[in-house]
Amino acid sequence: xxxxxxxxxxxxxxxxxxxxxxxxxxxxxxxxxxxxxxxxxxxxxxxxxxxxxxxxxxxxxxxxxxxxxxxxxxxxxxxxxxxxxxxxxxxxxxxxxxxxxxxxxxxxxxxxxxxxxxxxxxxxxxxxxxxxxxxxxxxxxxxxxxxxxxxxxxxxxxxxxxxxxxxxxxxxxxxxxxxxxxxxxxxxxxxxxxxxxxxxxxxxxxxxxxxxxxxxxxxxxxxxxxxxxxxxxxxxxxxxxxxxxxxxxxxxxxxxxxxxxxxxxxxxxxxxxxxxxxxxxxxxxxxxxxxxxxxxxxxxxxxxxxxxxxxxxxxxxxxxxxxxxxxxxxxxxxxxxxxxxxxxxxxxxxxxxxxxxxxxxxxxxxxx
Length: 368
Ligand code: COA
Description:
Blueprint: E1 4-13, E2 18-20, H1 21-25, H2 32-39, E3 43-45, H3 53-68, E4 77-81, H4 92-100, E5 106-110, H5 116-129, E6 135-142, H6 153-156, E7 162-171, E8 176-184, E9 192-193, H7 205-209, E10 216-217, H8 219-240, E11 250-253, H9 258-268, H10 279-282, H11 289-299, E12 308-315, E13 319-326, H12 342-364
Helix pairs in contact: 3-4, 8-9
This protein binds coenzyme A.
């Protein structure tokens, strides 16, 4: 029988700097009342010049490894879901792999916008269930503040920065990620996009002048799409796990807009107190919103061992999806591991590897 993929660790990281609605009032023609009533957002966290998607992802990953009591060298797969990667390439996941010292892990990025964490969770689950890996790190990390047009009130009030991570581990007891659905509809690609900077529209003075490296969004259309697919994906993933809506203890939705979440819960006939919401303090952190919300749900005692939980999200692409998890919690700790203490060793290791590469270049370079 194929093993189950249990979530045994979770962690989050958000920048210290907070941008409130009152701060935004000084930047664009908006006000706290409008933002709160239309979106549910009160404030969001924004990176400073030293922080980036990889630094947030690394911090979230180390926190998750600490909960799972897992040594970074035991991680075999790292998936970073992000729409705001450190570079076009190399993958942000490889930078995280180096920074946490996961010396036995394959690492890649996955881009499915705000649905990305659900896609990544499903990919890592399949890798575990097939027996190809035993331990995986799934990270959702974003710094969308770097891609926001701070003069566009339609979008700049919505997004925030942050990262969340899960450790997935193979186990024989039934539980963990039981089912997942992933869907897409590229005919809506133009509804939410950063138009330039890729192969279609490479960077030029024109693209910079017309702010085509920032987020462009048709808010009303995205809103209509989101309310429709959230309920649909939730029903599908519950049916795929052969459960009923009544069997679900908690829904953790993508935190994009309070009104979208409320409409979806009404459509499902799920009471609001069975749904976890923290959008007021983080805004839309895209693919990071579900793992961040999960960390806070655990902190607040909202998730218990054995609970059936649905993660559901939507985003650019268009993409949407859901995952159903039977919560198992961390495996019993039988050792004491402090992944953060690897930092010094990991930095030395990375420098040594670079040095060895350079020496090899000197010795062999002339003969190639
Ligand atoms: N402050 C004040 N007024 C604003 C504003 C702001 N920050 N942003 C837009 N407005 C104005 C609009 O210009 C418009 O004015 P007009 O009627 O004079 O043109 C008015 O408010 C209403 O705009 P509308 O688009 O109808 O508002 P809305 O109720 O649909 O809310 C969103 C706008 C963006 C909050 C909403 O459409 C939304 O959340 N959509 C989904 C976006 C999303 O989730 N994206 C991420 C997907 S992962």
